[in-house]
Amino acid sequence: MNILVTNDDGILSPGIGVLAEACRTVGAVTVVAPDREQSAQSHALTMTRPLRPVRRPDGSWQVDGTPTDCVLLAVEAPLLPVRPDFVFSGINHGPNMGEDVLYSGTVSAAMEAVVVGIPAVAFSFGGRRDDLIEGYRDLVADLVQKIVALDAMPPNTLLNINLPGIPVDEVQGIRVVRLGSRFFSDSVAKHQDPWGRDVWWIGGGTITWSGEEGTDHTAVRDGYVAITPLRLDLTDHGSLEMVRSWALALEA
Ligand code: MN
Questions:
Q1: pLDDT at residue 231 in the model
Q2: How far apart, in whole angstroms, are the C-alpha atoms of residue 64 and residue 80?
Q3: Ligand 1: distance of its center to the CA of 211 in Å?
Q4: What is the spatial distance between Cα 100 and Cα 7, in angstroms, rounded to a whole number?
Q5: In this structure, how many other beta carbons lie within 10 angstroms of the beta carbon of residue 117?
Q6: How far is the CA of 37 from the centre of ligand 1 (A)?
Q7: Domain 2-180+212-251 listed as CATH 3.40.1210.10
Q8: What's the rounded Cα separation, in Å, for the pair 99 and 162?
Q9: How far is the CA of 7 from the centre of ligand 1 (A)?
Q10: Which of 60, 68, 152, 215 would be a feasible disulfide site paired with 180, CB 3.0-4.6 Å?
């Protein structure tokens, strides 16, 4: 089993170290990750300049690009001597639930793996206490082992896994859930630069979740590991017929 591990927090983040250790219990691991923070880069590809991967003394690769760049270079360059059998992304510092998955580089790296035909799982830690992530090594290793052993990942689908932001010995279990939905308020804050000019900083603010049961947010809130299958096909199949019925009017 050859495993590619990547993330969006950068190769020096503690979370990717924990995930790489967990994955080494099932096979040979190569880490290919951004050389710096790339959170919220979504599925961005770097196309306006060349990329210069650097091999680190421990055999991992740091890339001056996005998480998607890392997966693409790992597989197509190829930085890995063999095509990976599985891609694991994370462990992200902070949750990737609901609409977060649209912005997340961690989830997008897993998505890119699925695009090139490799099964993939994204892990995120749903809290702000980074010191708790280390404690999840055995739990994540157990999940990785079981997911690989099942050998049943659906095609064109990735697993998005959110770990609750609590000490690992307080985890209640696992729930398979759909994406939740949340609203941001005051997430664009006005500041001043050193020259007194107005600047705006995106982030922070207040997050309100819709609170529906059966979602990633409620599972993590209740202390469960939340697993959500995400598919690449964004088509809203339920609306196809309705929008087709508009076609006549749109063409007229
Ligand atoms: Mn991140």
A1: 95
A2: 17
A3: 23
A4: 15
A5: 10
A6: 7
A7: yes
A8: 13
A9: 7
A10: 215
Q: Kindly write down the DSSP assignment for every residue of 217-229, as one continuous string.
A: HHHHHTTEEEEEE
CA distance linking residue 119 with residue 151, whole number of Å: 9
Q: Which residues of the chain have a pLDDT value below 50?
A: none
In terms of pTM, does the model score above 0.85?
Answer: yes
Dist. CA 241 → ligand 1 center (Å): 38
Nearest to 33 by CA among 69, 4, 6: 6
- How far apart, in whole angstroms, are the C-alpha atoms of residue 224 and residue 97? 13
pLDDT score, position 251: 83
Distances (CA, A) of 121 to 11, 59, 79, 190: 18, 22, 20, 36
CA of 44 to the centre of ligand 1 (A): 14
For residue 252, the one-letter residue type is: A
Q: How many Å lie between the centroid of ligand 1 and the Cα of residue 39? A: 4
> Residue 130 burial by CB count (10 A; 0-12/13-18/19+): exposed, middle or buried?
middle
